[in-house]
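Example 3.2
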Amino acid sequence: MEFRYSNKLVCNLDTEYKRRLDSWVSSRWPYRESNWEEFLTQLPGFYPIDVWDSIKRLGFNSPELGTEAQAIVRNVQMEAFPDALEHPLDFEWRFVDDSISTILVKLRQLLPEQKFISVGCLGCPNVAVAGERKLPNYSWTLLDRRAELLRPRVKKVELIACDLTQDFPRLPSWDAAVVDPPWYLPITKHFLVRAQMLTKQGGFVLLSFPPEGTRPGARRELDQLIDWCNQGGLERVEISYGKLQYKTPFFESNALKSAGFSANVPSWRKADMLVFVNRRENGRGVICDDQIPERLGAEWQIFSREGVKFFLRIEPPVKSVTKNVPVVKRLSPAWRHDQILPSVSTNFPGREKANLVSSGNRFLICDDTFSVAQLLRTWESNGLPFESKGPCPLQTQLSTIIEDELHDKENYLMHTYDRK
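Structure, written as tokens:
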């Protein structure tokens, strides 16, 4: 494998974080297992590119780690969206089946046997789908922006489509809530405010949280979160480090390959699992006034077909700076010359400029979003090829992008899942 870019550009690390990373890598090397993924899962969430850079910096021989990993055994019945891949703007990482089972086992341990047990899922549709099948005596509710899309997949789960960073009507109180927010502290706090409001006094809140290696400030964020929870009546009673594991989504797989990381890592990412008890009394609870960064809350139109999605932000067309000279309608990469960004960070250069984003981490800028929207509607209804009415560079570009996206999707599925 070879870096395609300077790692300082892909992910610039501070000195202390780099020291901790090198210490972890040194303590786990040499590792007897045969592949990259098994080595990565021995570490507390450090990004593969950064681990690769650390191995080089320490003078270890990274080819000792094989590039292939064991494929994920897939249970489609337990998936919320089996026909649609994750999208970077949904900030969605899906638990592997074993981690869903871990959550369900923990719920059974926490909740005594009784006639009626209610559980709410905030941002984790796969848990609600699996919970209905594996714990059918529980009452399940899902709060998620895309909850309505699950109606064909569930029978009794109450589906509530909502933005969990905004206020919404009160619901009957649950015995427990499972919370899997995007890994940004302001959003996590907003999710926990809703979870506490909707959980009975003495009820439990299970939270997934990024482990210390996820980013330089992750350990500090965890301490801040626990203090904030304690002040608002959410008492932490348990923390299990690295307990939960996620499938590597399509967009992250493409990002790693774009950076030059060719090893197959179908489920390297882990999360800590925290358990809180709701001690809220006399209206005192956690309060969050943190603003959600604008880049995380923009409005997009969504077009989907054959398991992939394109998010499009409609903007006024670019005007020509020269009178009587029409603007050439085109699609261009948001960063350098690569359509696929080599990072999943929301702070990556150029990402905020994109107005067309694909499931495969393609971030593009289009001069005429109205024309692109029309083409994507046609693709959504009829597929490819587009019906040609003469030379149209924008149509040709978009057609190639969609074809590349579908090709990447098939490669991803082939290398991620056990299809036996």
